[in-house]
Design a protein that fits this description.
The chain has helices at about 10-15, 25-40, 45-65, 70, 75-80, 85-95, 120-135, 145-160, 175-185, 200-215, 235-245, 250-260, and strands spanning about 100, 115, 190-195, 225-230, 270-275. By secondary structure, the protein is mainly alpha-helical. Helix 1 (about 10-15) packs across helix 2 and helix 11 packs antiparallel against helix 12 (about 250-260). The longest helix has 19 residues, at about 45-65. The protein is globular, with a radius of gyration of 20 Å. It starts with 10 loop residues before the first helix and ends with a strand.
């Protein structure tokens, strides 16, 4: 997998924490978290994820003089006389390292801090879900489990980053749309949904992008476009993959705006999130 140096920017996420970084150990965990979000989240194979864990461990020892097991708070491995933990244990520990800015509801400004209690995080998200269902015409009956919490934290991080955007890939019914709507609600964003029919084509796609881009809270104020259920031409899909892996946020937006694709499904969803909920 090739990665462009322009995309090797974990500092953007680090600056979100600002003065909330309490000590060097927290800075190390924050840096590790942002590296995971920039690189690790794009990997779909456990072998690649394990390689990422080993590489990250080497970087931590070389530049931060810290062992990965200590950064990830793996006491059993650390107490085993320096014994290396199993690859599966490392992958599980990597999942537990999360930062989010919605742990303190109503905070202004929001505090981008480490999730130290996932049970508390789950309770906060459940409260947000209850508030969403109380005000929405389309309430969602969601089970907020570990993976859902992780995805919500990722989506919130992306849509609150300057020029942030994400391509959510998964099978139908996996929760991409629901978790995006919940994350947008948590961050006080509006969701713009595109209705697609059998005759929906590239022309309508470009027109919808114009509508989104010219909204009062539009680009570059933190908007991103994601789409699900669209089957792309092989060449177009390859361009999307390369753009999401190699592009900067702005070039990724341009790629989506210029991409020629073939719609072969009956319905799909494209949504744009912009700050300011009615």
């Amino acid at each position: 997998m090739l990665l462009c140096p322009r995309n090797c920017i974990a500092t953007q996420g680090i600056t979100k924490a600002g003065p909330n970084v309490e000590d060097p150990a927290m800075m190390t965990r924050l840096w590790t978290h942002e590296v995971l979000r920039v690189f690790y989240d794009r990997l779909v194979d456990d072998a690649d994820r394990q390689w990422m864990g080993r590489t990250l461990g080497g970087l931590l020892e070389r530049h931060f003089k810290e062992r990965l097991v200590k950064v990830l708070s793996m006491p059993e491995a650390a107490a085993a006389g320096g014994a290396e933990p199993s690859p599966e244990a490392v992958l599980t520990a990597l999942r537990t390292l999360m930062f989010a800015d919605f742990l303190v509801p109503g905070a202004d400004p929001r505090v981008y801090g480490e999730v130290k209690d996932q049970a508390a995080m789950q309770r906060v998200v459940m409260e947000y879900l209850a508030d969403f269902n109380a005000t929405s015409k389309k309430p969602m009956n969601l089970v907020i489990f570990q993976f859902a919490l992780e995805h919500i934290a990722r989506i919130c991080r992306v849509i609150t980053s300057p020029g942030g955007n994400a391509l959510l890939v998964g099978v139908g019914g996996s929760g991409r749309q629901s978790l995006t709507r919940l994350a947008a609600f948590i961050e006080e964003y509006e969701v713009y949904q595109i209705e697609i029919s059998k005759t929906y084509s590239k022309t309508e796609w470009h027109e919808d992008l114009k509508k989104v881009g010219t909204r009062p809270q539009g680009w570059p104020g933190g908007q991103g476009v994601g789409s699900g259920g669209i089957r792309l031409m092989q060449e177009g899909l390859r361009e999307v993959q390369q753009g999401c892996l190699l592009g900067t946020p702005r070039t990724q937006w341009d790629l989506l705006a210029q991409l020629s694709y073939l719609v072969t499904t009956k319905s799909t969803v494209s949504c744009s999130c912009s700050r300011g909920r009615a």
